[in-house]
Write a structure and sequence with these properties.
By secondary structure, the protein is of the alpha+beta class. It has nine helices and 18 strands. A five-stranded antiparallel beta sheet has the order 16-15-14-17-18. A four-stranded parallel beta sheet has the order 2-1-6-7, with helices on one face. Strands 8-13-9-12 form a four-stranded antiparallel beta sheet, with helices on one face.
Length: 323
């Protein structure tokens, strides 16, 4: 078994990364944690490739702590910040310098033949919602009928065929910049056919049929471990999008039907993912309907509410002990 470091790239204030560091430390696995924002000002990368089959050698260091690249056993990549470039760099070159810093660090680490959680290339390929619809269907999961369009007439005709309420949600993760400069999440909205208007034609819109819910499930998958947790919403807004009202939520570990579990494994394997935060609705008839998978989704709030060993599963996978 490898004895080198696990590298954790995450922001300083990241409770999920904190839990994984703690669990790895309990296993006596060496950890080097840093944020890309620390590079290049307070971190050093020294990587050499001499044409050997073994690949890159050298080290990444932060102060008096360093990890040898050839001994890294795994990388946990959790939404790190962007490199901060020295103020002395001319403004004309700062964006260029930042892009070079990202490429230098991430691309060297990406080339290491080690276990990754949230590999950047795999994340980008697996995060597309339209692609997930196809992949989930091919994996045997039920998905809502969906439409992507900027045509009001097309949306109205499609809505008539659906024959009920719809939901409108962002196609990709993004936030709105409001007047005070604070970003704001755009939640999923339940809409009637009569709510659609000409504003739909200003950009692409993602519509789905409304799925009646007994409750929703956040399924956290780490390697071979599945952690299905029911989310019971206690307010009208949370019943449409539970992220809008965390205070009204109650969490309950539940079992997952075998056919759904098998479909989830096929879905993740198809993308090459060893982690996913998947969202389902469970209808009043007990049918599981797949909404989406966030390949770098949050899980700390689920672990805190349920005491499920999600951090331990991360540590097990990163250590290399997962069976």
């Amino acid at each position: 078994m490898p004895r080198g470091h696990v590298l954790i790239l995450a922001e300083d204030m990241d409770p999920s990364a904190d839990l994984v560091v703690h669990s790895l430390t309990e296993r006596r696995v060496p950890v080097l944690r840093f944020d890309l924002a620390d590079f290049p000002q307070s971190m050093t990368l020294s990587a050499e490739h001499g044409g050997r089959v073994s690949g890159w050698s050298g080290e990444v260091s932060r102060g008096d702590r360093a990890a040898l690249l050839e001994e890294v056993r795994a990388v946990y990549y959790r939404r790190p910040g962007l490199p901060r470039i020295h103020a002395g760099v001319d403004r004309r070159y700062r964006a260029w310098a930042q892009s070079q810093a990202v490429a230098g660090m991430v691309q060297v680490l990406s080339s290491l033949p080690v276990t990754w959680l949230h590999h950047p290339d795999v994340y980008r390929a697996s995060a597309h919602k339209p692609g997930q619809r196809t992949a989930a269907t091919q994996a045997g999961l039920r998905v809502p009928r969906s439409l992507v369009t900027n045509s009001l007439a097309c949306a109205q005709n499609w809505g008539l065929r659906v024959g009920g309420d719809l939901v409108c949600k962002p196609i990709a993760s993004a936030s709105l910049d409001v007047l005070d400069g604070e970003p704001m999440m755009l939640p999923t909205r339940r809409v009637a056919l009569t709510d659609l208007d000409d504003s739909l034609e200003l950009t692409a819109h993602y519509l789905q049929e409304w799925i009646p819910k007994a409750y929703e499930v956040r399924l956290t998958v780490v390697g071979n471990h599945l952690f299905p947790v029911a989310i019971h919403a206690g307010s009208d807004t949370a019943r449409v999008d539970w992220r809008t009202d965390y205070d009204s939520l109650e969490y309950e570990p539940v079992s997952i039907p075998d056919d759904v579990a098998q479909g989830v494994r096929r879905f993740l394997t198809g993308y090459g993912l060893n982690y996913g935060a998947l969202d389902f609705a469970v209808t009043p008839y007990g049918e599981w309907v797949f909404f989406e998978c966030n390949p770098a989704g949050q899980w700390q709030f689920i672990a805190a509410a349920t005491k499920l060993p999600i951090a331990e599963a991360h540590a097990e996978l990163l250590e290399g002990a997962m069976k």
